[in-house]
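User: Predict the complex.
Assistant: Input components as received:
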Amino acid sequence: MLYFRTIKLGTKSLLLHPMRSLLTVLGIFIGVASVIWLLAIGEGISKEAQRQIEDLGAENIIVRSIKPPDESGGNFRQINAFGVTRNECKLIGNTIQTVKRVLPIRELTQKFAYTGNPNVKPIDGRLVGCTSDYAEVTRLEIERGHFLTTREVELNRPVCVIAARLADKLFPSEDPLNKQIYLPEKKEYFKIVGVLKHRNATAAIGGSLAAQDFSLDIYIPVTTMRVRMTDQETKRAGGSFSSQLFELSQITVQVSNSEDVPKTAELVEATLRQNDPDRQDISVVVPYELLEQAKTTRLMFMMFMGLIAAISLIVGGIGIMNIMLATVTERTREIGIRRALGGKQKDIILQFLVETITLSIVGGITGILMGLLCPIVVDISRWGLEYFAPQLYAGLPEVARVMRPTIVPISIPVAFFISVVVGVFFGLYPAVRAAQLDPIEALRHE
Amino acid sequence: MSQTSTRMAAVIRDLQKHYVLKSETVRALRGVSFDVPEGDYVAIMGPSGSGKSTLLNLLGCLDQPTHGSFLLGDDDVAQMTDDELSTIRASRIGFVFQSYNLIAQLSVVENIEVPLYYMGNLNAKSRKRSIELAKMVGLGERLDHRPTQLSGGQQQRVAIARSLVNDPYFILADEATGNLDSVTTEEILALFQRLNDEGKTIIMVTHEDEVAEHAKRVIRLRDGEIQIDEAVKDRKIFTPQQIQEIAHNADVASRGSE
């Protein structure tokens, strides 16, 4: 009853100056909302990063071939082979015990065309030579048909599996299955045996490669690729030729047990560098390590975000304190009256604390509501940006476009708790000051 | 002074109050002694600097004496802590101030309840009592009005109702009519007399002789000491008819102002 009365009184006093109370609440509101927002966005980004890394496979070790800087100076008669070789691929598979399997992968950028529909222009995409294990190891999922089979790989069959977006583009109105895809640069046809499901890009591998986008891929047996296209890749660009000689662009080493990953990675690296410790044409990437790294980064990121949010809450709290100090001065007379009529010091403290806590709780609750709107607001602003400024939107980093803010559940009670603490902490000083006023002086105050 | 059979509302013995200002000590009260029997109606007078306000603060338990004793019932106020003083103010003293000192956020009836609130005695019964008091001072139809919606005389009547709500040892009125015109002053004084006739003890601090004339007894202070403590000779007394008439007029006037 008495507490109810105190709260009622506090609310009445606050409503005496609605604008002032509103602005004060705004400080806490922004603070609390930003706690939830920043944490949600931080969590969303790190989840996305983590997902991208996990897509690479935590039990995988990836060896990429890196094209050395061009030293021949336009002399393409003498072309040096670079990168990881088929022999090395076999060697790793046969000698390292912890390795479950090794996938040879060879990638080329190619134009893809469908001759059955003259309206469809050739599309730039990535031609991936791989084995039947590739889908499982890189977690590609089949929408229709089947992925390359062991038999198709062994027999060098001219078949392929295409990614979803490519399928949509090349076959806007037809069923791609069993159609022939034409590679104009290679003058080769491949029969489509499977179509993949849609899939987001994975993390960038190492520092040197962009995020892997699977959406325009065509997968063919690596054996077929070798037989039909050889290891030399010549490109003509505006009259000049460039040529590369490499056997494989990547091998993915799958380890039986993810705990063995770091050890195996060392062995793989040692195997590849046994002849030349300074070998520059390969790079070994361990997603498992990236994952560990990402977890640390995430923690730091969250702390950083939390810090920013905490600062805004403190600013809000100072706002409350400022207003309450002004209020105490303004209401000195009232304090004097209350003291004269029997209010104890602690009654006065309670009265002013109730007001600040009311302010901060109202700010806290509205802030939480605003915080919960975060995913919706992010979606709306993305949509708005895409609609009104498509170029700007396209320029955004991948992660900003696909990231989904994830409300961290604990952030809600924490934000609420903090707002109450801010109310008490910043309200206490003005309240104590009010209570310590001399009642005689306070009564005389005009 | 008066003896035995009458109970004392307040007993004051050798009350002294010194203020230390920098190096100088101001002796605002230099040993004041008097009794206030229950049912008395005392006017405390004196020029400024006579110690009037200091005495008022001590009587109101807002301050503590440097020396001497001040007995309220069986309690010696001089020995009390801040919290105990607050409790005694809430429970046994009825303040009426010059500038009414109502709380702006609260309605008439809520203002009357404030001392009960601090005593922790708010309940349906106390609400009923507050409403009765509001009716008694002629504001029964304005229970939900805010102080700003009332005239000065009405506000002072609310303050008087508030001073009665905790059944105090005495009503302590500090220049209670100082802000009011002559008609309203008469109205308040008539109310005081009525309350005194009903047995309430009233201590009134004033500098106006016309106001003091309505009291039963006058204490004049000078330089921190009692100069005169005597019964009022030609006390002005409202007849019951006058009291009724004044209350009626006030009622009519307030209705007219609506």
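The interface with chain A takes residues 57, 60, 62-63, 82-83, 86-91, 95, 97, 101-106, 114-115, 117-120, 122-123, 162, 166 of chain B (CB under 8 Å).
Let me know if you want any component modeled separately.
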